[in-house]
């Protein structure tokens, strides 16, 4: 094999490997939390009445938890549905001032689970 044939074979291999890598990345890409209310890392001064989670693609909200700074679970009374939605709203009970962590798990239409968490702080005006 001369140098030109070797170069051509190597170039084809690199192009093929790159195409496979891009296809694999797209196939395994999962949607992420795009925005939330209360906002991610926000400090809010008024009692929030709901959590609103906005995702990049329709997902089922499989689980959602809210914990305070002492890791105490706040009952959200959330019921799982099989609805694929871009946005999910969950009612909140009255909350005392604290920093809260929202922990969520979703399932995409491809059946893959995704999870994440974010914080917000409630500090009501006195």
UniProtKB/TrEMBL annotation:
Gene3D superfamilies: 2.60.40.1220. It comes from the Bacteria. One of its GO terms (molecular function) is copper ion binding. The keyword Transmembrane does not apply. Residues 30-122 form the CopC domain. It is found in: Cell envelope; Periplasm. Keywords: Copper, Metal-binding, Periplasm, Signal. It holds the Pfam family CopC. GO terms for biological process: copper ion transport; response to copper ion. Residues 1-29 form the signal peptide. One of its GO terms (cellular component) is plasma membrane. PANTHER family: INNER MEMBRANE PROTEIN YEBZ. Involved in copper resistance. Belongs to the CopC family. This is Copper resistance protein C. It comes from Alkanindiges hydrocarboniclasticus. The lineage of its organism: Bacteria, Pseudomonadati, Pseudomonadota, Gammaproteobacteria, Moraxellales.
